[in-house]
Amino acid sequence: MSDVSLRHVSKSFAAGDGQVQVLHDVSTDIRLGELTMLVGPSGCGKTTLISILSGILSASAGEIELLGHSLTQMNDRKKVMFRRKNIGFIFQQYNLLPALTAAENAGMPLMASGLSMQKASQRACELLDAVGMSDHVNKLPRQLSGGQQQRVAIARALVHSPRLIVCDEPTAALDAASGKGVMDILRQIASTPERGVIVVTHDNRIYSHADRILEMSDGRLIGDHAPDAFIHKE
Amino acid sequence: MVASSATMRPMPSFIRNSTTAGSSKAKTWTLKPSNLILPALAVLGMGFAIFTVFFKPVEAARIPATPPPRSPAEGALAAVGVVEPRSEIIQLGVELPGIVRSLNVKVGQDVTEGEVLLALDQRDIDAEIARRQAVVDSARIQAADALALYKRISNVDDTAAVSAEETEQRQYALKLADARVKEAQATLEAARTTKSRLTLTAPIPGRILELNVRPGEFVGSPSNQVLISLGDVSRLHVRAEVDEEFLTRLSTGTSAYATFRGDARKYPLSFVRSEPYVRPKQNLTSASPRVDTRVAQVVYALPEDTRTDFVGQQMDVFIGSPSEGTPK
Amino acid sequence: MILNGSLNGNSMNAVALKMLLGDRAKYLGLVFGVTFATLLMAQQVSIFVGIMSRTANAITSVREADVWVMDPRVRYVDEVEPMRDVELSRVRSVPGVDWAVPFYKGLSTIRLADGLTQQVQLIGVDDVSLIGLCDDMLSGRRDAIRDPQSAIMDRNGFLFVWPEGDFQNSRTFELNDNRLRIRGVCNEKPTFLTFPILYVTYQTAMEITPPQRKKMPFIVVKARDGVTAEALATRIAHTTGLQALTAPQFRWRSINYYLERTGIPINFGITIALGAIIGAAITAQTFYIFVVENLKQFAAMKAVGVTNGQLLRMVLLQASVVGSMGYGLGMGATALFFFATKNQPALQGFQLYAQVMAGTAVSIAIIILGSILFSLRKVFRLDPAVVFRG
């Protein structure tokens, strides 16, 4: 059985007076307990693909099944509720709220579910401890370095214990050492069988952290590699 | 099935502990005092605005210090009246021109009928009277002389001694002398009448209301001004002018009240008469004549105990509406 | 307090407040934008209302009267169409009239001791009751007006004619070759015409003004207890054929005349509209920018599971905090302005009205809500995917 399955997924955007097809008939399965990387040149449709499989964008055609639920049959509100419980996001630009402390930022998904700010922050602290940010829980994002901010973002992605963590270029804005630290954490998350991690990247320094690499080009999946094979192919 | 947030899965065991032992504490967020400055100012400002809007000094409706005339009856006819004596005002003048020599009365004095009010200069007429008295006296002497002459011969029958012609002559002389006496007496009487015309006496008992003459002044005849105003103030009347438009609403039997200006007391009026002639409004209330309508004048009597100090005072007269009047 | 309450309650409200307070410069900009808009609107509208009500102050200052009777041609209080004296008796004869007294109002020219002339508004009040004479005496007694050759002047007019003040020093002047003396100075709301107000008795006014067949401009009437002013006015108008208006009716008739016939309201209306538009633009723009600049944060929140409803509540909370604070500050500033200037002759009698407060609140709320809803459309239609695109 597969935990995430995409069948014949296509996506096109209206552009000018025509249509631009971004995804062409993508079919694949992603398993929990693995760190799956999605690689390919800019504009090949990687971001569109993860937006669709996390329910942020709707597919133009095709079937998506996520943890036993059919995304294509959910309305927008159900998708939000589903996302709130089951998916954690990590963005390239961290996207932390500048007015909130690290703990409050990390507790945001819990607050959205109705938990009080204090309780949410308290729980976020446990995760911030876990990602090595114990000394910075009460700092504002502008007082943190890029790597530290991304750790806060990871804590935010984990705080509601989601099954699937979706990362968009998590290391692109970080130096090598910080990037490696972030990938180490993601690597560990993916080592538990009930959690899957999907990482979109074109940072070849981190390919070695993957369990599996899906290669995309021009909106099509063109390869499904083991990391060692892919690194050598590069 | 999707796990609900309430049954959160246990913390992942994969994450190694951070370098610092023990878990950190998140600070509870509270508002800093500096954050409260602006709201406090806003509350103050709002409070001040509300204060100035809702706690401004109340402008109470003014109550006039002196009440204006109120109509006593619903829908009563309003008219303006002037107080006058029962006799109306008699404006006395002199018959002959002359210089005022003596003035025997003061303003406000009560006089009896025939009382001398003023006298003009009478030296001329006194001299004339004396002269004419003398003429009468001399005429009388002449008459006595003529009578004596006549009597002396009237008893003599001797026609030779006294001729009939002589007797006749003396008889005529006597008649002439008698006639002269009568003439002189009549002239004297005329002078006396003239003298009486130089004094002014009261035609009725009453009160001197106005005195516009002083001793030594020349007064003409007919005089161009009122010398003395006299009126019978034993009972006062009020002469009300009712505008012609109200005449249909006016009936003699209705009750009426009058008030003095600035005095809330109501004086009940009793009807005396109404002037039959509807005349142009004389504007009793203002010095300058501004004729604007025709009015009927109605005279009412004030109660007997009304103070009688000021004849000519203005009154606001309210004549009850016909509906509530008692028709006679 | 609202702020702390939301901290304990819905945590997204706390997030909203932190977002708002987090950027101090923008926060202050928002609050002062609303403050400025409030001040502009409330102050301008109040001054306008004040000026327009000045046109009717001659009516409102006769507080004893319920009904004004005048010639049917009179359109506003400064227009004089004299009536026959007989009309006073006719009005007094109308059922329901408690009392009716004549009231003279007209323009005259006085000659001062130094030969200068000055236009004045001559008011002749009933000799007996002194109805219509101001009662806030700064010097002298009201009764003195009954003395021969005596007059009372209003404070602003007195200061205009004799800037050195000194109310006690009684001044003499001539009016149509009649000598008059100021026997008292009183405080009265200034009228639109701004000329000094000179009070004399009605009889004095009759004597010192040029002779005319008809001279009585107004009759002021008090209704009996239990008779409404409106009913009485209708009855007087019907019975006498004159124009009878209740004090508020006459007031509005005067105000409307100025509104319709003079350029003042239009001019002022434009100023107010400009002020309101500027205030609205500032507020709307600041709010719009505030929301738009936070779009990325809203997108991130949407991505982690914050619903549109929660976002709407957050923005509404921010708006109501900013709006109420800006409104409070603006109203406070307006009230302070009128408080500080209440003794200036130019601004005397101008004040903040409850209706203006309410109206400003509504307009500010509409402006804020409008600009929020306009910018929130962007948030609602916001594609959370934007956060992926950096």
Automatic annotation (TrEMBL), chain A:
**What PROSITE patterns does the record tag this protein with?**
ABC_TRANSPORTER_1 (PS00211), ABC_TRANSPORTER_2 (PS50893)
Q: List the Pfam families hit by this protein, alphabetically.
A: ABC_tran
Q: What SMART domains does this protein's entry cite?
A: AAA
| InterPro entries membership | AAA+_ATPase (IPR003593), ABC_transporter-like_ATP-bd (IPR003439), ABC_transporter-like_CS (IPR017871), ABC_transpr_LolD-like (IPR015854), MacB-like_ATP-bd (IPR017911), P-loop_NTPase (IPR027417)
Task: Indicate what this protein is called per its UniProt record.
Answer: ABC transporter ATP-binding protein
The taxonomy runs: Bacteria, Pseudomonadati, Pseudomonadota, Alphaproteobacteria, Caulobacterales
Q: Which residues form the ABC transporter domain?
A: 4-234
Q: What domain of life is recorded for the organism?
A: Bacteria
Keywords (A to Z) from UniProt: ATP-binding, Nucleotide-binding, Transport
Per the UniProt entry, the signal peptide is none
| Entries under CDD domains matching the protein | ABC_MJ0796_LolCDE_FtsE
**Classification via SUPFAM superfamilies:** P-loop containing nucleoside triphosphate hydrolases
Looking up PANTHER family in the UniProt record yields: IMPORT ATP-BINDING PROTEIN, TRANSPORTER, PUTATIVE-RELATED
Task: Please provide, alphabetically and separated by semicolons, the GO molecular function terms listed in this UniProt record.
Answer: ATP binding
